[in-house]
């Protein structure tokens, strides 16, 4: 597709072995974790240094070649689906942890560092990097920043954006833009780092990222509360927050999810329960003890039929493994798993869950709902088969209606999965035509040829 | 300066009484808290509703009239110095607290709400809004967001940007752009809210802001540690952080500042001390007790000659009043007070303080240094007389050198005071030509006529 001369230029920058043109390679980068049709790119390029990265970007811009940066491709919104005539720009070889500064509580990393490996390395320095997206075992930090990845600890610790102190990135011409700082406070210039977060690669290509670290909590306590009525479970969530307890994690699983998880893990989940809350508090040992006691009491008052606290690390791990099994367990049930991300102010969780179940019933769909109840971020997961076009039409109608309800409850389309290609068409409903025009004006200003991950978020 | 027809149009939008054309009014809005020459605007306009605000912006754009949004004008970088042929857009009448949602831990406000009044109202709802810039008694939240205001609690609680969940703003044509959400997590569209934070009014005019609230800490403990050597004080800061204690406030005052504060307040400060640290820990009572004990022990080990803990709220207030008196006390000494904002990674505080003192000596200037040692944000304050041109040249050289040292220590030009007009010329030194070009491209894209607070941050 590209001229031999052009391919030679790519090879001159990154080396022959890092220009991937084989059919199998191209196929491998044609899709991500979203339920969307694959698009096979012209080739994939894998720079191994900052310098090479900048040069690849410049070469693409000079030749009008669309580029899609990609870490591990775990995003759920099509953020890394490439263009047919474009390249996939792999960041996986840019995987150095450049600095972990325990005195000043920050780290500097390249975008291809794997999240879990980074978190482990930070822990070895006696510190804590809280963001824990579901895919952290394989996801890259560059991808986390590009998608503003969330996770289970969002309620207390926030999401990726809350840990980004600075981003140095290549503009479309391959020049280095510097934003943010290694300091806690920085107001030098426009907040370009924050604009890069959640920008899904449409505004620049990350070179180095400065991430905030925090001291780890001294203690934690995980609990499971079992309910025979999902309303009682969701009202418990509101009662915990009203008591001024901010758990680090506060998750909900509905009956359908519980059954699939038990079938998958045989972990001994109560399959007749209508809902389970998994709750963890952390912090100073005295605070943890006190808050755990209060949580148990709130759960019981709200009508939990059973409340169990993990007695040791093994029991705690078992609870969280069950939670992390929710998506893979549901995904086994049918050929297609449409994982949604509707998010509402947490007090609206009871209303949102009721609405999801009504919509599922109306469209004769099986939906398992689980998610981060504490921050209002639910993952209604529709189990279906995309090849059954009539069923899939009903799925699309259901998704539409789920979004409508979320917005009517003052919520948002996407809590943590991004807009990508999958949700771009709904964006105006939540914002306004002027909002999209404003975003498009910014995009066009910094990428006049439109080569940076085209089509994501704002279309075009 | 404006035609009668145009003035009539402004009056038709906001009412006659809200178009301020008198000389005294115009003079009142010619300056802010920065040491810069005043610029008298053509007039000031004071909309009282969102609708009026949007219409004023549109009218300005249609007629190419520069507009400078202004709350209380307390910023220290010239961010609200208007254009001679422009208007000042007063936000003070847009001062409604639209919603405080205790269940979902957020508030929705208009930009003209005064920070301290908002914090007090939030406290009445049993919640906590942590950002506490020095000027909070009069500053507006719109101004805080535009400048990304910091304060004394930055170390543990972050700064204004960490509390902005959403910003609805008027684009230059007067259309409403919506960004962010009332939910903890939101990745719907580009993060335009975060871009508005610290943008000093050059990218849009705020309409409504959604702010995050948190439960208040259950207990706190304030302490004062006295040192006969400033190096020991700054090393104590590093030792506290290394012990994984994150105080909510960790302030330093040098000898010069202590003397001026004592002269001003007669609070009984130890005037022979070379440095004082003011430290407050907060959180669960057991944690506070334990951390306070550790802090006392760390201070003593590091060589503090005296450590006192506030025994009650009155003693605690006395400590913080002394700290808050630092700037007014220094400002009494000489006609001009050049308050700087150099910020370094906290481990570099000893080096930064030594450098400031050397620079002061070299240029024969009196400098009092105080600030947020815990987050590396120092306020070296040069006491001088701007009318003494030879002295002021030395001041400018000293400021240059202070910035050079901060950057060489991997710090930043401005921790919390903004760039405005005052520091625009240093911006490229910290970032790069490409960074400024990128920011200018964004600005031009959303404000083609350049009417939104011209000249701030990126010049032009």
How is the CATH topology of the domain at 97-212 in chain A named?
Answer: Uridine Diphospho-n-acetylenolpyruvylglucosamine Reductase, domain 3
Please write the CATH class name of the domain at 97-212 in chain A.
Answer: Alpha Beta
What's the N-to-C terminus distance of chain A? 23 Å
Oligomer: homodimer
Number of helices of chain A: 16
Radius of gyration of chain A: 22 Å
Mean pLDDT over all positions of chain A: 95
Structural class of chain A: alpha+beta
* Helix fraction bin of chain A: 25-40%
List the chains of the largest interface with their residue counts: A-B, 95 and 95 residues
Named CATH architecture of the domain at 97-212 in chain A: 2-Layer Sandwich
Largest sheet properties of chain A: 7 strands, antiparallel
Choose one word for the global shape of chain A.
globular
Strand order of the largest sheet of chain A: 13-10-12-11-15-16-14
Uncertain regions spanning at least 5 consecutive residues of chain A = none
Let me know the number of strands of chain A: 16
Q: Name the beta content range of chain A.
A: 15-25%
Task: Give a quick summary of the entry.
Chain A is α+β, with helices and mostly antiparallel strands. Chain A is 37% helix and 19% strand.
Secondary structure layout:
Two copies of one chain form a homodimer.
Chain A: H1 4-14, E1 19-20, H2 23-28, E2 43-45, H3 50-63, E3 67-70, E4 87-90, E5 97-101, E6 106-109, H4 115-124, H5 141-147, H6 154-157, E7 164-170, E8 176-180, H7 192-196, E9 205-212, E10 219-227, H8 230-242, E11 249-254, H9 255-265, E12 275-283, H10 285-301, E13 306-309, H11 313-324, H12 326-331, E14 336-339, H13 349-362, E15 366-372, E16 377-384, H14 389-408, H15 427-430, H16 433-446
Parallel strand pairs in A: 2-4, 3-4
Antiparallel strand pairs in A: 1-2, 5-6, 6-9, 7-8, 7-9, 10-12, 10-13, 11-12, 11-15, 14-16, 15-16
């Amino acid at each position: 597709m590209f001229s031999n001369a052009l391919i030679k230029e790519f090879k001159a920058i990154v080396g022959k072995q890092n220009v991937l043109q084989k059919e199998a390679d191209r196929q491998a980068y044609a899709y991500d974790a979203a339920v969307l049709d694959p698009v096979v790119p012209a080739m994939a390029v894998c720079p191994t240094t900052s310098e090479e990265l900048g040069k690849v970007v410049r070469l693409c811009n000079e030749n009008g070649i669309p580029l899609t940066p990609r870490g591990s491709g775990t995003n759920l919104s099509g953020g890394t689906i490439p263009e047919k005539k474009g390249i996939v720009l792999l960041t996986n070889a840019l995987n150095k942890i450049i600095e972990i500064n325990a005195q000043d509580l920050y780290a500097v990393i390249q975008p291809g560092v794997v999240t879990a490996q980074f978190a482990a390395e930070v822990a070895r320095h006696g510190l804590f990097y809280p963001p824990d997206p579901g895919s952290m075992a394989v996801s890259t930090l560059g991808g986390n920043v590009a998608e503003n990845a969330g996770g289970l600890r969002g309620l207390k610790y926030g999401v990726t954006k809350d840990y980004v102190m600075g981003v140095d990135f290549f503009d479309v011409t391959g020049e280095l833009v510097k934003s943010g700082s290694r300091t806690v406070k920085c107001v030098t210039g426009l907040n370009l780092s924050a604009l890069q977060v959640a920008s899904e690669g449409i505004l620049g290509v990350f070179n180095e990222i400065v991430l905030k670290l925090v001291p780890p909590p001294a203690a934690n306590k995980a609990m499971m509360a079992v309910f025979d009525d999902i309303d009682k479970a969701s009202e418990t969530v509101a009662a915990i927050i009203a008591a001024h307890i901010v758990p680090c994690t506060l998750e909900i699983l509905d009956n359908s999810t519980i059954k699939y998880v038990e079938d998958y893990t045989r972990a001994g989940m109560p399959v007749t329960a209508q809902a389970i809350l998994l709750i963890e508090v952390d912090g100073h040992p005295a605070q943890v003890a006190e808050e755990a006691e209060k949580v148990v009491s709130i759960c019981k008052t709200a009508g939990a039929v059973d409340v169990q606290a993990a007695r040791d690390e093994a029991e705690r791990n078992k609870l969280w493994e069950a939670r992390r099994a929710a998506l893979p367990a549901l995904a086994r049930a049918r050929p297609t798993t449409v994982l949604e991300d509707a998010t509402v102010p947490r007090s609206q969780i009871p209303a949102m869950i009721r609405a999801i179940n009504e919509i599922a019933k109306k469209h004769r769909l099986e939906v398992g709902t689980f998610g981060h109840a504490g921050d209002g971020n639910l993952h209604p997961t529709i189990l279906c088969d995309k090849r059954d076009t009539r069923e899939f039409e009903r799925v699309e109608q259901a998704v539409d209606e789920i979004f409508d309800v979320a917005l009517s409850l003052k919520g948002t389309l996407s809590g943590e999965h991004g807009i990508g290609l999958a949700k771009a068409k709904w964006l105006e409903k939540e914002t306004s035509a002027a909002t999209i025009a404003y975003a498009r004006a910014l995009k066009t200003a910094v990428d006049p040829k439109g080569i940076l991950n085209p089509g994501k978020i704002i279309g075009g």
